[in-house]
Write a structure and sequence with these properties.
6-stranded mixed β-sheet; 703 residues; binds adenosine-5'-triphosphate; ATP-binding; alpha/beta; UvrD-like_ATP-bd; Rossmann fold; hydrolase; 4 domains; P-loop_NTPase; 6-stranded parallel β-sheet; HelD family protein
């Protein structure tokens, strides 16, 4: 396009670049589809593997009509060095800026989007937001323009490019303004699953997203500060910057429950990342036993306490017994004897090493066999490796190992600890008080691993024991969302899944609602095995309107003294209404009326209530002819109302929230502080408006 056209009608110029980029993406896809792999693959296994990779690539190259191919543009002042321009996936979109009147080519222009697109010559048309050259799109400011003369943000309606917004960062005459496109993005109604925020990541969020793979980052942030969004974008970034390594080692996102995982599961695919596992902590540890029971909270707190790790370590090690007799191995006409004291030395040496119990169990027969071989050599024989292996498998050696260092079954071990008071006492001595021991002992001891009613906390203990026996496989990176709710033992379970990798820990101390919830991030990171992690804080709120967050923040002194309230970026006057009804009987009709009022607006509606109130409200909604969804079910334009038990509200958001009877939400928890925290979570789910309805008195802390 000629330069004069660009300057006289910028939108047309940008649309032309969009159309050309789309055509280029289509061509890239066609190229991959046309690949003929028959000649390059030697056998059908290779062919199948290659074909699967090609299919993934075709999927990744799809042009999604509702996700804009690019959302920003940077015009650099100078030519960008190759090392900065190149991300791990190769080239970058580099176009010469339209030549001005003098036709002088200066810096370079980059279009920034979700993925890399190049034209038929391999020249880039759109560059990935994760490439180093894209970072100034998020970070450049008037104070520090990072060599960017001109930043442009694009606005879309449907799939159409309809608006743009310019900042001339090096022009002192241009006044500073907040971006209307950012504001519009934040206020866009929230129908459907969680969306990516790639076009509007804020500078302090970007810093966390791009922090290196080597280190663990912990983010403390109040409701709606973008912790979940940041964690998911960080995975996408790491997969871009370290794709090969992470493809080998794997990545995992941990969330509090299934409905939450459903809510977030679309974000990574929208960013082109399909290979990230998602699970709850229960999913991770429940692979070994089926969880069918529940604990009293006092028992669960003790089982989740880090001291249990030491009890388990002692219990596992207690299986090692000093040898009484030596070993006599008979081979042919000869007998070889390894005396007890020598086996004891081997055992002591294995105990002194930082070795898994099971690995030592495997090593001991080889050590004994080696001692036998030494004797054979001394006697003039010339045994080889095969002889050593044969000796290691000799029944006498096996019997000795069984007596000295027997195999340990993790589930059986935990079952014994939880059912055999003497066994527990022997290993918990000096660690758990007598009272604590009584609390963890099962009321109705099960006979077998199969018949036991394992609880979630038991499964974590078994996982710990299993790790003492055999090292748990570590992934390359793990993101833990709503981390404040994990027990120390759960942190350990997650920590061993990233022992050789790194983690992103996301949470809010004020939203901890488990009896064992995190009191300080330093402690949590210690249990995770990442004590050297940095703790960052996010304070700008992108969800909850100012009035609503101010109301909810009245609870902070009671639930998390010392935490600063979130600074909302959203001024929405009239977003909060608190209404009292005279009698309990009037509550349900008033709640239904408030839902109907909210339904008149665009966007999703969440009716949040104490878990115990859900059946009554479900019936009332039904009687009034309103269909409703459960949390995690996707809202659509046709079906926008979700009935949310307070216990499942964490992490979710709705455009309009109707909150039923706060006192019942508080009373639904075992203690007042947990109740108020649950209420804080419920009060902070609304994007546009919150209506609080109550027949009972409001908790005084809200007063
Ligand atoms: N930079 C941003 N641009 C646009 N929207 C954003 C940005 N950051 C966060 N948001 C939006 O704000 C909302 C809240 O984000 P998110 O759920 O990640 O917050 P959170 O800190 O995890 O909240 P909670 O503590 O309640 O779980 C989401 O709708 C998210 O898309």
């Amino acid at each position: 396009m000629p330069a004069h056209e660009e300057s006289s009608n910028p939108l047309a110029g940008e649309r032309a670049h969009l159309a050309a980029s789309r055509a280029a993406l289509r061509a890239m896809r066609e190229d991959v589809k046309a690949l003929d792999i028959r000649d390059v693959t030697a056998n059908w296994v290779n062919a199948a593997v290659l074909q699967a990779q090609i299919d993934d690539r075709i999927k990744a190259l799809a042009d999604l009509s509702h996700t804009p191919l690019f959302f920003g543009r940077l015009d650099y002042l100078h030519v960008v060095g190759a090392e900065k321009a190149e991300g791990s996936s190769g080239g970058v979109a580099r176009n010469a800026p339209a030549e001005g009147g003098g036709g002088r080519r200066e810096g370079e222009r980059f279009y920034i989007g979700r993925r890399h697109v190049h034209d038929a010559h391999g020249d880039p048309m759109v560059i990935d937001w994760r490439a180093p050259v894209s970072q100034p799109f998020y970070q450049a400011s008037r104070n520090n323009p990072l060599d960017v003369a001109h930043r442009r943000r694009f606005g879309y309606t449907g799939g159409e490019l309809t608006a743009y917004e310019d900042e001339h960062l090096t022009d002192p005459a241009e006044p500073e303004q907040t971006s209307k496109l950012l504001q519009a993005e934040i206020e866009r109604p929230r129908v459907g699953p969680m969306r990516d925020i790639v076009a509007t990541i804020q500078p302090e969020q970007d810093e966390i997203v791009r922090s290196g793979l080597g280190g663990t980052v912990c983010v403390q942030g109040g409701p709606g500060t973008g912790k979940t969004a940041v964690g998911l974008h960080r995975v996408a970034y790491l997969l871009y910057a370290h794709r090969e390594r992470l493809a080998r080692t794997g990545t995992l996102v941990i969330g509090p429950n299934r409905s939450f995982l459903h809510y977030i599961e679309q974000v990574l695919p929208a960013l082109g990342e399909l290979e990230v596992q998602q699970a709850t902590v229960e999913d991770l540890v429940a692979a070994r036993v089926e969880v069918r029971g529940t604990d009293e909270s006092a028992a669960a707190v003790i089982k989740g306490d880090a001291r249990m790790a030491e009890v388990l370590r002692r219990a596992v090690r207690s299986h090692v017994t000093p040898p009484v007799d030596g070993v006599v191995v008979v081979r042919g006409s000869r007998r070889w004897r390894v005396p007890a004291y020598e086996i004891e030395e081997m055992v002591n040496e294995l105990l002194a090493r930082d070795m898994r119990y099971g690995a030592a169990h495997e090593a001991l027969p080889q050590r004994i066999a080696h001692a036998v071989l030494v004797r054979m050599e001394e006697a003039g024989e010339a045994p080889d490796d095969r002889v050593q292996n044969a000796v290691a498998r000799n029944p006498a050696v096996k019997a000795a190992v069984k007596a000295v260092w027997p195999a340990v079954d993790p589930a059986k071990l935990v079952l014994r600890l939880l059912t055999d008071a003497e066994f527990l006492a022997a290993h918990a001595e000096g660690i758990l008080t007598g009272d604590e021991q009584k609390r963890v002992l099962a009321a109705k001891p099960a006979r077998s691993v199969k018949s036991a009613k394992w609880t979630a906390a038991d499964a974590v203990l078994i996982d710990e024991a299993a790790d003492l026996v055999a090292r748990t496989h570590s992934l390359g990176h793990v993101v833990i969302d709503e981390a404040q709710d994990l027990s120390p033992m759960q942190y350990r379970a997650v920590g061993r899944r990233c022992s050789t990798g790194s983690a992103t820990v996301l949470g809010d101390l004020a939203q901890g609602t488990t009896p064992w919830s995190t009191r300080s991030w330093e402690q949590a990171l210690f249990h995770l095995g990442k004590a050297d992690a940095v703790v960052e804080e996010l304070t700008a709120g992108f969800r909850v309107p100012r009035e609503v967050i101010a109301y909810a923040s009245r609870l902070l002194p009671a639930i998390s003294p010392g935490l600063a309230p979130v600074e909302s970026v959203r001024e929405t006057p009239g977003s909060l209404a608190v209404r009292a009804v005279e009698t309990a009987g009037e509550l349900d009709p008033a709640v239904i009326a408030a839902c109907e009022e909210s339904l008149r607006h665009e966007g999703s509606i969440g009716l949040i209530a104490a878990d115990a109130r859900i059946p009554a409200l479900a019936a009332a909604l039904g009687a009034a002819g309103h269909a409703y969804l459960s949390p995690g079910e996707e809202t659509t334009a046709a079906s926008r109302l979700t009935l949310v038990p307070a216990s499942l509200a964490k992490g979710l958001e709705y455009d309009y929230v109707v909150l039923d009877e706060p006192a019942a939400v508080v009373d639904g928890e075992p203690d007042e502080r947990t109740g108020l925290r649950r209420l804080y979570v419920a009060l902070t789910r609304a994007v546009s408006g919150l209506v609080v309805l109550h027949a009972a008195e409001l908790p005084e802390q809200l007063g």
